[in-house]
Amino acid sequence: MEKSQLRFSVEPSMTDVDLVSARVSEIVRKASDNDKGFRAGLVVIEACTNIVKHGSLKAGDKIEIEVNLGNEHGDVVIAIIDSSTQFSPLDANDPNLGNLDVMQKGGMGIYLIKRFSKDISYRYVDGRNILTVTV
Amino acid sequence: MFKFDLHNKTIGVISLEKPSRITGEISASFRKWYESKEIGKCSAIVIDGENIQFIDSMGIAALISIYKNLTPKGSNLLLVNLSPEIKKLLGTLRLDRLFNIRDCSVEDAIKTI
User: Fold this and answer.
1) Number of C-alpha atoms within 13 angstroms, CB side, residue A27?
2) Contacts of B57 in chain A (CB under 8 A)
3) Three-state SS for B108?
4) ipTM
């Protein structure tokens, strides 16, 4: 992977989220290995799916999502930026892994982002959520 | 995209016809598809993971749904040929304690049921 950042604009649809996740996964896999490629794709799909499914806006507005992919000291750094209302995934409670019904309803995605990342941070700047994940 | 074969009249084998990602809308299609297969009548379901390139939380929710459909009837869910990354994902969610995950071929898995 080149040192410069790659930027992806993501349409707020499950289809586009999957396409970008697959693209990110493939780029990271080729630059690193299968494990890191899988982690990167997982972070992108879970974070963006959460925005598409739960992100809210004023009526008529369209959510804008951007994924930036870069590297820092050999680590892959992914920034997911979106224009929906302020929401920190880091505040979400971990799912009860002993309760399948609860797991099916949701919460696994954010938990997986946390568990499959080396570092994770969240900021809300100029009306945009910025989730930065190192894998 | 998905394929269902019945072995020994009671063992169902689910596989993917080509390498695919089980995510988002595909997961929803997968759920609708297997609900039409009456998998609850099987004594066991073997999922061949050879062509599962990637799976997300929605795909995992679909696997949980199959598991919940089978276990009340005392049936088994076996997953074989999974990539190391997918096995790690299932382990992170502690689903390796519920699903029967094996490093063997579909044929070998069927022999042990």
Assistant:
1) 23
2) 46, 49, 108-109, 112
3) helix
4) 0.91
> What is the phi/psi pair of residue A112, to 5°?
-65, -40
Domain of B83: which CATH number? 3.30.750.24
pLDDT tens sequence across A82-134: 999 999 999 988 888 988 888 887 789 999 999 999 999 999 999 999 999 99
Per the structure, the count of domains in chain B is: 1
Neighbours of B104 (CB within 10 A): 13
Helical packing angle, A34-54 and A14-31, nearest 10°: 160
Contact B93 A15 (CB under 8 A): no
User: With contact defined as beta carbons under 8 Å apart, do B40 and B12 qualify?
Assistant: no
* Burial B71-99, CB ≥16 within 10 A → b, else e: eeeebbbbbbbbbebbebbbebbebeebb
Contacts of A99 in chain B (CB under 8 A): none
Q: pTM of the predicted model, to two decimals?
A: 0.92
Per cent of chain B over pLDDT 70 is 100
pLDDT in tens, B75-112: 889 999 999 999 999 999 999 999 999 999 999 999 98
Neighbours of A11 (CB within 10 A): 16
Helix (H) / strand (E) containing B66: helix B57-70
- Give the structural domain span for B24: 2-112
CB contact A117 to B (< 8 Å): no
Beta-carbon-side half-sphere exposure of residue B38 (alpha carbons within 13 Å): 4
